[in-house]
Amino acid sequence: MRPNGTAAHAERSGVIKFTNCLLVKGKELVNDDLWVSSATGKILNGQEILYGQRTAPDSIVDLGGRILSPGLMDVQLNGAFGFDFSLIPEDGAAGYSKGVQRVNRNLILRGVTSYLPTVTSQRPDVYHTAVPYLGPSGASRDPSLGSESLGAHIEGPFINPAKNGIHKIEVLQTAPNGISDMLTCYGASNLASPPVKLLTLAPELPGALSCIQSLRERGIIVSIGHSDATYEEAKLGIKAGATKITHLFNAMKPLHHRNPGIFGLLGTESSSISKPYFGIISDGIHIHPTSIKIAWNAHPDGLILITDAMRLAGMPDGTYDWTNGSRIIKKGHLLTLEENGKIAGSSIELIDCVNNFLNWTRASVPEALKAVTETPAKMLGMEDVKGTLKEGADADLVVLDFQVGEVGAEKKLVVDQVWKFGVKVFDRE
Ligand SMILES: [Zn+2]
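Above: inputs. Below: predicted complex with zinc ion.
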């Protein structure tokens, strides 16, 4: 209760005006102001405030001509800062919960304001313990909690053993009885949205198509991945309700001119099938830059840059213990399994993926940022809340310095500031 009218009048409105900045709007960088509320954590209608309510901002933030973008979103992050979403620590659920919170607090400092914590193929007990801690974490709208989970991404274990990548073959499953097999595996209370937002599976496995339909009914988005599907099998997956491809090119058949495989979905558009969204790891290790260009040109509105990073992101080079007794060698961004030299994931940061994409494709800055803001938000059905500077969306923002060297030199976006729910949580200065 307010003590009196005067005090109420003196209360700060929490309105912030960003000025002298380039806003990322569609394909353009627009020289305009942006108004946000640190009280509601949302983006405001500047015109309405100026001319309707005649409210003066509490504070004006002059960005000195820098870029103001929606916060970055990573829909495939397996772990970071020494924590692995697929590994239950020795102290069990309590330690797991603390580890997730630690990732959230550190991740936001890199410009990633929301993400999908990702669990790889595991035995059922891992899902039963982990998934309850990975659901959407933004309900309290507390900026101090760091990056916000939008729900879990569950990758496997209903994937093809022929395309397992680093997933352990012995934990892989099929679902001949449809969704009931999945309920047993993940736990009935976990297999809903929330806590699960996205699920990667191989559509050619027994029971997979009926699972896709059941998952969609539960509000879970389905992505095709770690799959040996032919083009025809992949199309059936899309018809059943899948809307995305997990790390396109990796852990699937390569494009063949007589059997285009999963990649062929990017050339498909009909009344019954729309082109799926697709994740791309632009780390210079997983995919050749030219393949990325081809995919982007085939379906520019579907491309989502992901890190697929794991817990060694940010750690020094060396050999590290992995799960089930294997070990991983880290050299720069490259991670390989010691036992067979297979690519074992990535340790790249999302802003570096954006920078690689910028330099490899000649995409404009807004086009590159779209792949980590607007497009993932649309894929998740959250385009009015995340990944946009539209009025009413969450004020999750990054201030980016665009550094361009001499002619022909690398272009680079640097994360200068991060704002979560209208509150500044990181400043590089
Ligand atoms: Zn994978």
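The domain at 72-379 is CATH 3.20.20.140 (TIM Barrel).
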